[in-house]
Specification:
One of its GO terms (molecular function) is hydrolase activity. By secondary structure, the protein is α/β, with parallel strands linked by helices. The protein has one domain: Glycosidases (TIM Barrel, Alpha-Beta Barrel). 26% of the residues lie in helices and 13% in strands. The strands form 2 sheets. The protein has a 5-stranded parallel sheet with strand order 4-5-6-7-8. Strands 1-2-3 form a 3-stranded parallel sheet, with no helix packed on it. Helix 7 links the parallel strand 7 and strand 8.
Amino acid sequence: MTRSLLFPSLVLWFCLSTIPSRTLAESKLDTTHVSPFFDGHQLEGASIHGHEVHDKRKRGGRNSLLKRCDASKHSHGSKTPASAQYSGDSTSVFPAESKKWGLAWPNGDASYLANFARPKVRYLYTWSPYLPSTASEHGMEGIPMLWGWSQVDDFSRVVVQGYATRVLGMNEPNEPTQSFMSPQDGISLWKHYIDPLKTQGYYLISPACTNDQAGLDWMQSFVEGCTDCTIDAIAFHFYGTDPRAFVEHATILHETYNKPIWVTEFADQNFGGSGGQASMPDIYAFQSSVIEFVENTPWIEAAFPFGVMHDMQGVDEGNALLTEDEWPTSLAYNYFG
């Protein structure tokens, strides 16, 4: 069953303005979500293994992404862009100078990164400490990530003073199929590997939890227990079909922690097991509402739509941002300019 997400922007802002301030314990969101991505990078000392099926979603093993994430194995020539995949309204309505958008990029040093050097793209990350060698020449700020415990050796070796200016914390530490760890273990990892980077000039972005109650609870325990820690911004992932839930979740996190918000994965995707996936008109309507919210909310610092890849890892193909001939889809042009 297709759900229509078309509603006036006025309603969106009314919903935002009427969201009450609350504690995380009081926030019960009906937003079932598990991130579709995982560490696809072949790292020193990291075991390469598949991931379990969760919520009836396709979960590829790391091997399905190794070639795309290995920067040394990409050499693609320029091609003519594919035609737009949807014939509806796909005109970007926001100014090109707005640079809040980023690429969640699993494609290593692929030459088609140049095709995504769009007017509104500022950031790029790879679910690992490593960054494409050409990111800076395309005007993109690469942000290393400490995905989880499996990456600590590579992270501590690569992420040093001058390598970057921002760093991302762990990938869905509340989720068993991702970097899964207790808040206490997350605190230990943060204090040992991430917090010291503050004195080296880094801006520290929190672990990114899922947009459900488990994610809220994990983040609350982490922040409350991480005494004497520096956390400059709060990150989260969102998968759902209602943009009002996107707004609500971001607002809860901002009001709870009084920090800027980074949305480091999101898509119009139903992982709830009932109701079906959104139609393309629904996806464009969802996108329009999210863009309006991100562009007009000062405390949203960055947003990374999913996904710039051929294998969408169980996320509905309507959300794809990369065409078969390695150019942005019309959805991607809307986000990135």
